[in-house]
Amino acid sequence: MSNAKAFAASSPTSPLASTSIPRREPKERDVQIEILFCGVCHSDLHTVRDEWNAVMPTVYPCVPGHEIVGRVTAVGSSVSKFKVGDLAAVGCLVGSDGTCPECQAGFEQFCNGMTLTYNSPDVHSGGVTYGGYSDSIVVDEHFVLRVPSNLDLAGTAPLLCAGITTWSPLRHWGVTKGQKVGIVGLGGLGHMGVKFAHALGAHTVVFTTSESKVEDAKRLGADEVVISKNADEMAKHALSFDFILDCVSADHDINAYIHLLKRDGNMTLVGAPEKPLPLFSMGLLFKRRSVSGSLIGGIAETQEMLDFCGEHNITADVEVIAIQEINEAYERLLKSDVKYRFSIDMASLKG
Ligand code: NAP
Ligand code: ZN
């Protein structure tokens, strides 16, 4: 074991503060990474504040962070994909059983034995996993991704969660040219959803509660922008969508969007608000619409997404912050005030 510098929360109500955590020495299949940037996901905030207690209670101290980009500093003897000095990335997963049908099919995120990058039982230490708000991490090479060399690193980090979480459902539901696709909520996930839906050729409509984001939404690739609080604007889009991706982090009315779907249209929820969202079944019955969910993506699919981003020069729009600004960043996340992802420059942890 060696010690790593990190920022952790010690309770649901305490601010994140500097600490030291243990990291294992790299084993045979491990890659040790010096973390250069880590994105700030709303899931970090939900977890730090124990808002998902009913399904995933938070173990303290909690070191969040699952949008990790860095440089390889050591590799185990059987590692073949990486060598010291390579760029490398880690997302929301650091382990799975590798043998179950889900893993065999490339759906590591649905493996019953999967290990999340933070707040998961750590099979190596016997404690809990610690995430990317840290200067280093040690990860089995299967869960380490290759980073296209042309991409800006601060903007690449958010691809590891916000990117794959929006890419996976857009691909699963076959979003393509000629379709009308809605993206609800222009935050970290939403702004990546807009970039991907646009790049896949769909007519892309952003639904936002923030009037100040209209011009940005168009710059990011939206063909149209709807202020979701305006019922008249919403009504103009009734029965017109093939697919809607809901990226909202807080309580809101999903039924208003279901009415905008065509026959057999689907709305996929990727947002994970603290409380259940009421669903009016009549909205589904008529027009045989469906609502579903989606969780991040598998490892091969994450690499596919990163390679697509490399080819199309896609990264997140980031505000780079120092780790010492993290508590203020969380308050801004809660006010939907981020353009459009915070990315922590981990050099700030060295100071
Ligand atoms: P974020 O950056 O905070 O963005 C959330 C956006 O939702 C805001 O920018 C805002 O967009 C909208 N919003 C916020 N409060 C709202 C309200 N009361 N009513 C309507 N709209 C509201 O969050 P994020 O990091 O993108 O994460 C979004 C959600 O996805 C979180 O719940 C997160 O935990 C979850 N998540 C899920 C997965 C998965 O695998 N499924 C992965 C990562 C994250 P406007 O200003 O445009 O309205
Ligand atoms: Zn995330």
At a glance:
The chain is an alpha/beta fold. It has helices spanning 42-48, 101-104, 153-156, 162-172, 188-199, 214-220, 231-235, 255-258, 282-285, 299-312, 326-334, and strands at 2-8, 17-23, 30-40, 68-75, 87-90, 93-95, 115-116, 136-140, 180-184, 203-208, 224-227, 241-246, 261-269, 290-293, 318-322, 341-345.
Shape: globular
DSSP strand count: 16
Mean pLDDT: 98
Q: Which structural category do the helix and sheet elements fall into?
A: alpha/beta
How much strand? 25-35%
- Distinct bound molecules: NADP nicotinamide-adenine-dinucleotide phosphate, zinc ion
Share of residues in helices: 10-25%
N-to-C order of helices and strands: EEEHEEEHEEHHEHEHEHEHEHEHEHE
DSSP helical segment count: 11
| Low-confidence residue ranges | none
Q: N-to-C terminal Cα separation, in Å?
A: 23 Å
Largest sheet: 6 strands, mixed
Roughly how many Å is the radius of gyration?
20 Å
